[in-house]
Amino acid sequence: MLWTLWFGLLAALLSRTVTAQANAIYRDPDTGLVFSSNYVLYKVNQGITYRVAIPAGVQTYTAYDAVIQAVIPNDVGWAGIAWAGSMPRNPLTVAWRNSQNQPVLSSRWAGGHITPQAYNNAQYTLFKTGTKSNGTHWQYTALCKGCTSWTTDTGASRYLSPRGGNRMAFAYSPNRPSSPNSPTSSIPIHDVHGYWQHDFSGAANQDFDAIVQRLASGV
Questions:
Q1: CA 170, CA 49: separation in Å to the nearest integer?
Q2: DSSP classification of residue 112
Q3: I need a labelling partner for 5 at 20 to 30 A (CA). Which of 34, 85, 155, 201 fits?
Q4: Is 30 helix (H, G, I), strand (E, B) or coil?
Q5: Between β-strands 34-43 and 123-126, what pairing exists: parallel, antiparallel or unpaired?
Q6: Residue 154: what pLDDT?
Q7: Which domains does the chain have, with CATH numbers?
Q8: What integer pLDDT is reported at residue 150 of this predicted model?
Q9: CA distances in angstroms from 158 to 106, 127, 148, listed in the order given
Q10: Contact present, 125 and 158 (Cβ < 8 Å)
Q11: CB 51 within 8 A of CB 33
């Protein structure tokens, strides 16, 4: 009975939103950007940090660029973000390391609860600054154009709020894709997924465009 209760609690932990340091403000000394940061658990006492930075002064119901930064433990095979908080019908950012242990970012879209396919309406620029690794974690920092807005199956436009909370989701697998050097590789089914509310109001940067231009130039 006790074992049944324990496994039930563990399953509940890993299948729902679990965050620590929810919506903390992180001032990145490497890039100079201010991020809104959330830490999401994919196993007991082990999690991924997801950070978002956006321009200041963005109007609601408009498209805008975003910088995504993730700090990922080395035992993660791949980790993905759903920008609208569910797997189907919104931009998915899937990341893993290639055979040289360098980050690969893959833009995906899923028409349902099926294997996500390549998605051309979101483009990523991986920054050299803010992308690094050590003995326990790896980190990527990238600009995304097309992650904060998209078109639904009915032709309607969807936008993430730049001034409040947006429901986001993540998925994780301990296994790398079958062809890790290719951003269009097939990916294994995820082991764990979860959700959180990400506060974009704390992610605003007055000098966003200038900082992004500097980062994109590699300076």
A1: 11
A2: S
A3: 85
A4: coil
A5: unpaired
A6: 85
A7: 2-216 (2.60.40.1210)
A8: 96
A9: 21, 27, 8
A10: no
A11: no
pLDDT of residue 88: 81
Q: Which residue stretches of the chain have pLDDT < 50?
A: 1-17, 19-20
Which three-class secondary structure string do you get for 54-73? EECCCCCCCCCCEEEEEEEE
- Count Cβ atoms within 10 A of the Cβ of residue 29 and give its class: 0-12 exposed, 13-18 middle, 19 or more buried: exposed
Rounded CA-CA distance 196/207 in Å is 27
106: which 2 tokens? Answer: 């893959």
Q: Which amino acid is at 65?
A: D
Q: Are strands 157-159 and 165-173 parallel, antiparallel or unpaired?
A: unpaired
DSSP symbol at 28: -
Report the 3 state secondary structure along 179-208.
Answer: CCCCCCCCCCCCCEEEEEEEEHHHHEECCH
Q: pTM here?
A: 0.89
